[in-house]
Specification:
With 641 residues, this protein is an alpha/beta fold. The strands form 4 sheets. A 6-stranded mixed beta sheet has the order 6-8-9-10-7-11. A 5-stranded mixed beta sheet has the order 1-4-3-2-5. The protein has a 3-stranded antiparallel beta sheet with strand order 13-12-16. It is elongated, with a radius of gyration of 46 Å.
Length: 641
């Protein structure tokens, strides 16, 4: 009935608009044509005028609209003296009218505009009604054909959208950033993921001391009476600190797997929201769920996202509330029961002091990069499902990969397996291992062709590094040299320490600088100072850093044993330098740094001059073969001797 009433109303509007438009059209089409006074006078004299209407347009001016058998005409003239008598003499019907004023014209224009608007909106509304009717018919047809379970899913999804929108509106209307109000329904969901860990300590290799730290916690969980009998309590929190890829998450899973209890995982970034109170609410929900799963290990990865230091101006209220709630949950009036919190970060320097105190994180386990023995153990774990050639020695691979993390070693063996498949081999060979090491360290290779002159310069540059590595006492061992471009490097010499080093001597640092400058020294020795290239830019950068650190940090220069700069490095790879010296001292630092570099460069030039024959032999063979391994380098070195 409602549809019918709406339809009748719209049709009535449409009909009125049509009638008015018809009348307006007739008025327009019946408008008189313009005639001259001579034409009008001739028509009167010839008795052609049937009727006439005289209208005074202005003072002394008149308009005469007259009709003839041919049509209707109008003429304008000045004055109308004797006009009525003349028309009456020729039997013309005369009438008098009033001229239209501006008010009359305005009313007519408004009426026309209103009628047009009514007609336009009536037509538009009619089309909308028809479209809605057509869509309703199509929807009814689809619903008739659609399975019931699909209809239920559609209804649920639409209801969820309505609820989420209502929650968002409550949160926004509650105050600035959602204070004193609700929060989105999406923000109220739990972020903890319950995982039954199958990882054991046998899967964690290379970290003997680190595993010992956490094995005690596992034993406490399994045998609490042994510890409680003498008053010991389990640590409330364990903070795992280390560089990316060292196995912090793997170690946390191993703790849960060995203890045989539930393992809940959450990321620090999942607590961060723009609505104040959302993060705190998520912390409460996460710990409530962990308590329900107790005994339970709660692992929070990248804890620095919510645990970083608070500032005094309160500029980040959401972060502060989230951290405060986490502090309360870990060591507040209400204990967290049998929930062990394990957190991981590679930025411990950013964490809040209240967060790091005993009673919250009672134990801090630093997971460093593995040594040679640790790398070998990690390689053996990752090589369990790999087919290795009998010639592959994991001990040798471990010695070639100083500074590799557990994740790097996993990537190395995986790359080697892919290389073996690419080359149609049934087992991973030493060639695949060497190529995988280069890929992980430098990137993929490129077979771009150098001009012969550039190829010769690059060969001498890289062989300069090799000669310095062979002839200096504390230099690194030379494993390989190549002029095949890889990553951003046009060529490189792979130098590895003869053994793991934990401290550096002054002599060792100076020889390292000499080795880095060996490439530039070889270019100058063979081709002249005017033909040295930009290939030494990275070598110069590294050499300058070492020399400056000797002056400002290590007290290994003529400026004395005073630290002028303090460097704070993070496991994430970033570092900050804090200087504490005057402008005049800065100039002196630059001077002494330059002296160290010049001295090492002179030593590099002298060493290469004394071993020019070896340098030429190595460069000639490198130009020809493009790659020399350690065995061939040693053979060429023996030929010279």
């Amino acid at each position: 009935m409602k549809k019918l009433s709406l339809f009748v109303k719209e049709v009535f509007k449409f009909v009125v608009a049509i009638i008015f438009a018809t009348v307006l059209w007739n008025c327009i089409t019946n408008m008189p044509e313009q005639a001259t006074y001579e034409q009008f006078n001739a028509a009167v004299e010839n008795n052609e005028v049937i009727s006439a209407k005289i209208t005074e347009e202005a003072v002394g001016n008149v308009k005469v609209v007259y009709s003839t058998a041919q049509g209707k005409y109008k003429v304008f003239m000045t004055g109308m003296a004797g006009m009525s008598d003349k028309l009456a003499a020729h039997n013309v019907s005369v009438s008098f009218g009033k001229a239209l004023t501006m008010t009359d014209i305005s009313i007519i224009v408004l009426a026309i505009g209103a009628t047009g608007a009514v007609a336009y909106f009536s037509i538009k509304r009619y089309r909308q009604v028809k479209t809605i009717d057509r869509m309703n018919c199509q929807m009814e047809q689809l619903i008739d054909e659609c399975p019931e379970e699909v209809i239920e899913d559609i209804v649920k999804n639409n209801l969820r959208s309505v609820v989420d929108s209502a929650g968002m509106e409550r949160g926004m209307n509650g105050g600035m950033n959602g204070m004193n109000g609700g929060m989105p329904a999406e923000a109220e969901k739990s972020i903890g993921k319950v995982i039954q860990s199958t990882v054991t300590m046998d899967d964690v290799a290379g970290y003997k001391e680190e595993k010992q730290e956490v094995l005690e916690i596992i034993d406490f969980i399994k045998n609490p009476a042994k510890y409680l009998s003498i008053g010991a309590t389990i640590p409330k929190g364990v903070l795992l600190v280390g560089a990316p890829g060292t196995g912090k998450t793997l170690l946390a899973k191993a703790i849960a797997g060995e203890a045989g209890i539930n393992f809940m995982y959450a990321s620090g970034s999942e607590f961060v929201e723009k609505f104040v109170g959302v993060g705190a609410s998520r912390v409460r929900d996460l710990f409530a769920e962990a308590k329900a799963q107790s005994p339970c290990i709660l692992f929070i990865d990248e804890i620095d996202a919510i645990g970083r230091q608070r500032n005094s101006n309160g500029s980040n209220m959401e972060h502060d509330q989230t951290l405060n709630q986490l502090l309360v949950e870990m060591d507040g009036m209400d204990t967290n029961g049998e929930v062990l919190v394990i957190a991981a970060t590679n930025r411990p320097e950013t964490l809040d002091k209240a967060f790091m105190r005993k009673g919250r994180f009672d134990r801090k386990v630093t997971i460093g990069l593995p040594d040679t023995k640790g790398r070998e153990e990690i390689l053996r774990v990752h090589a369990k499902n790999k087919k290795l050639s009998s010639l592959v020695s994991l001990h040798d691979v471990a010695k070639k990969t100083p500074g590799f993390s557990g994740a790097d070693l996993y990537a190395l063996l995986n790359e080697a397996a892919l290389m073996a498949v690419r080359n149609n081999r049934t087992a991973i060979s030493t060639i695949d291992i060497d190529e995988a090491i280069d890929r992980v360290m430098m990137g993929n290779s490129s077979r771009k062709k150098f001009p012969e002159k550039e190829k010769e310069i690059i060969a001498y540059h890289e062989c300069g590094h090799v000669v310095m590595g062979l002839k200096l006492d504390e230099a690194s061992k030379v494993d390989k040299v190549t002029i095949i471009p890889r990553g951003d490097a046009n060529g490189y010499a792979m130098l590895t320490p003869k053994e793991d080093q934990f401290v550096q001597t002054k002599k060792g640092l100076e020889q390292k600088i000499c080795g880095l400058l060996g490439g530039r020294a070889a270019e100058e020795l063979v081709f002249g100072a005017a033909n040295t290239t930009t290939g030494a830019s990275n070598d110069l950068e590294r050499a300058t850093k070492i020399a400056r650190a000797m002056v400002t940090e290590y007290g290994m220069s003529r400026l004395g044993i005073m630290q002028l700069e303090h460097r704070e490095s993070s496991y994430a790879g970033t570092s900050s330098v804090y200087a504490d010296y005057s402008n005049s001292k800065a100039e002196e630092i630059d001077t002494v740094t330059q002296e160290i570099l010049d001295s090492c460069y002179e030593k590099a030039l002298k060493t290469l001059e004394e071993n020019r024959e070896l340098l030429d032999l190595l460069a000639d063979e490198l130009k020809e073969k493009e790659v020399l391994n350690s065995r061939r380098i040693k053979a060429i070195s023996k030929e010279v001797l």
